[in-house]
Design a protein that fits this description.
With 271 residues, the chain is α/β, with parallel strands linked by helices. Helix content is 17%, strand content 35%. The strands form 3 sheets. Strands 4-3-7-1-2-6-5 form a 7-stranded antiparallel β-sheet, with no helix packed on it. It is globular and about 55 Å long. It binds flavin-adenine dinucleotide and FE2/S2 (inorganic) cluster.
């Protein structure tokens, strides 16, 4: 669905990271965790292409305008890396952006009886908050959050408020354990009995480490991938990754925008 959204709020939550809430049609309230949004940042040539962002949160509140019904909103958590996100960061309440949403598949919420392990690196937490909100309705949820330094660790309190047990690790040891959060997660998985599913989003090296842990421990695992996107709907093939059957003789490609961005880890070729 394409729509014009009004910016309700847009503020910096940590240096270089912003949280933006925009108005949305009521249908957006049924978005699945893991689906994403394409944002047309400006009505101008540069930047021309829409930029993809995960759905950080969706909800409904009383409208700020008297006589209007409840207002659905959608939130994005984004990191300023280039022109598009730098432009987004300058927007204020009352400005408008053009959105396409919801796009892509979402996470499979799995069996309520198993433990859910969320693992995120840096801005990779963006689609995991809405996922956690849904999962805590039925399951025990633990969240393993990693970043380079303390400024990359976002929204811990929000996850804890949901009742999620949260573990933090930073590369430089400025917050939580020093080192990779995937090592902390693997220790937890090896030390505890019971069935579980891992849900991961973050930089590719982190996802590769998570896929390795899932393989070694036999735990089911879903990963949310990032790729450069142009159309966001499976038309341009600009976002393909290699599927598990891929070889030079028989290509097996998956579109991150349409077949994903969420994949079962064993559907992809990791090397
Ligand atoms: C499905 C999906 C969901 C995403 N969700 C989020 C999110 O919730 N929050 C968020 O902050 N970002 C998210 N991203 C990444 C986000 O789309 C890019 O950071 C954004 O498009 C950059 O736009 P820009 O114009 O600021 O930077 P550009 O000028 O386009 O790029 C600047 C630099 O950023 C890096 N970069 C840009 N796009 C990507 C990308 N897709 N993958 C890896 N590196 C990139 C490159 O190093 C590039 O040189 C998501 C990407 C995808 C595909
Ligand atoms: S972005 Fe065009 S096919 Fe995925």
């Amino acid at each position: 669905m394409q729509f014009k959204a009004m910016i309700i709020s847009n503020h910096e939550v940590s240096p270089g990271y912003f949280r933006m809430r925009v108005s949305a049609p009521p249908e957006l309230a049924d978005s699945r965790p893991g689906q994403f949004i394409m944002v047309r940042v400006r009505d101008a040539i540069d930047p021309l292409l829409r930029r993809p962002f995960g759905i950080f949160d969706v909800g409904t509140v009383a409208s700020e305008f008297s006589g209007c019904g409840p207002q659905t909103y959608v939130e994005m958590l984004y990191k300023v890396v280039g022109k598009g996100t730098a432009t987004l960061s300058t927007y204020h309440h009352g400005d408008h952006v053009d959105l396409l949403a919801p796009l892509g598949t979402g996470f499979d919420l799995g069996d309520p009886d198993e433990e859910k392990i969320l693992v995120g690196g840096g801005i990779g937490i963006a689609p995991l908050y809405y996922l956690a909100k849904k999962l805590v309705e039925h399951s025990r949820v633990r969240f393993f959050l990693g970043g380079r330094t303390r400024d990359d660790i976002l929204c811990v309190t929000e996850f804890e408020r949901l009742g999620v047990e949260t573990y933090v690790a930073t590369d430089d040891g400025t917050l939580g354990d020093r080192g990779f959060v995937t090592d902390v997660m693997e220790r937890h998985i090896r030390g505890a009995a019971g069935r579980r599913t891992i849900y991961a989003c973050g930089p590719m090296p982190m996802l590769q480490a998570v896929a390795g842990i899932a393989e070694r421990t036999g735990v089911s695992c879903q990963v949310s991938l990032e790729a450069y996107m142009a159309c966001g709907m499976g038309a341009c093939l600009g976002c393909v990754v290699k599927g598990k059957e891929h070889s030079d003789e028989s290509p097996d490609y998956r579109c991150v925008c349409k077949d994903g961005p969420v994949f079962a880890f064993d559907q992809l070729k990791w090397v």
